[in-house]
Specification:
Length: 270
């Protein structure tokens, strides 16, 4: 089959076959390209979509990017059940198998070092949301009721501001304590920037967006610790996701779907 090589991840050789029905980007099943003590997991994709110019144009198409991201993540999820993958960026493509092997050759020591660190470990994500803030009274829109004096109006505004500040302080204190506790159950952790609710579609305001690197054998204890905190602070919501491939701890070669279309150094279609 002709086409470019889309690379999902690099990992050590593994004996357990992937799911027979698994398909990757564009519907092509993934296969392995071995090189020394590593393998790249790749599939064929059409040059008409993934060569440099058409890929740049596709980056403006959110529906197209979403479909590619889902297929990409599906392969990574399948790999995570049988081995420890080092995911590459969404949209990493090469002209042929030779280009894939050249990429592995250039980064071999780095890949092996990172895989050693991640072996037997998974990533868990934990987010804290402030679900409700004080309801805004009509005067917050800028109009002051005629029956309310200037002094009463200012007092009401100060009370509302103080209430919002108190809620945020409580949320931040809870999140700081939760992160400290969970970091004690993990080998490493990352605090990411809070999610933009407009982009994520999640309810409430994101107070904490953290990732934790946890040995597989200790994941149950980690999950139980998160579950125990969920009722500790009314008005706050704790969300747990995972286990994932260790995107947040895999190094500069990797990224999640939020970096859709970025091209890693050394790749290309020429």
């Amino acid at each position: 089959m002709t086409g470019l090589r889309y690379v999902y991840a690099v990992c050590r050789p593994f004996g357990t076959p992937l799911q027979a029905q698994l398909t990757g980007v564009g519907g092509d099943p993934p296969r392995l390209v071995p090189h020394h003590d590593l393998v790249a997991v790749v599939s064929h994709v059409p040059e008409a979509d993934f060569a440099e110019e058409p890929l740049r144009a596709h980056l403006e198409d959110l529906d197209w990017l979403t479909a590619v991201a889902r297929a990409h993540q599906g392969v990574i999820d399948a790999l995570t059940t049988v081995t420890t993958p080092l995911p590459l960026r969404l949209g990493t493509v090469f002209r042929d198998d030779s280009g894939v092997r050249s990429m592995i050759e250039a980064r071999e020591e780095n890949f092996l070092r990172r895989l050693d660190r991640l072996e037997g470990r998974v990533e868990w994500g934990v987010k804290v949301f402030l679900e409700s803030e004080p309801e805004q009274a009509p005067e917050q829109s800028g109009a002051r009721p005629a029956a309310m004096s200037g002094r009463d109006y200012l007092r009401r505004r100060r009370e509302q501001t103080r209430s919002r500040e108190d809620q945020w302080q409580r949320a931040e204190t809870f999140a700081t304590g939760l992160h400290r506790t969970l970091a004690g159950f993990a080998e490493d952790s990352r605090l990411h920037a809070p999610q933009n609710p407009t982009l994520s579609g999640a309810r409430g305001r994101n107070v904490m967006n953290a990732a934790y690197l946890v040995p597989r054998g200790e994941s149950e204890a980690f999950v139980e610790q998160v579950e125990r905190t969920k009722d500790d602070s009314p008005g706050l919501r704790v969300e747990l996701t995972g286990p994932w491939a260790a995107y947040s701890f895999a190094g500069e070669e990797t990224a999640g779907a939020e970096t859709a279309g970025e091209r890693t150094a050394g790749e290309g279609t020429t």
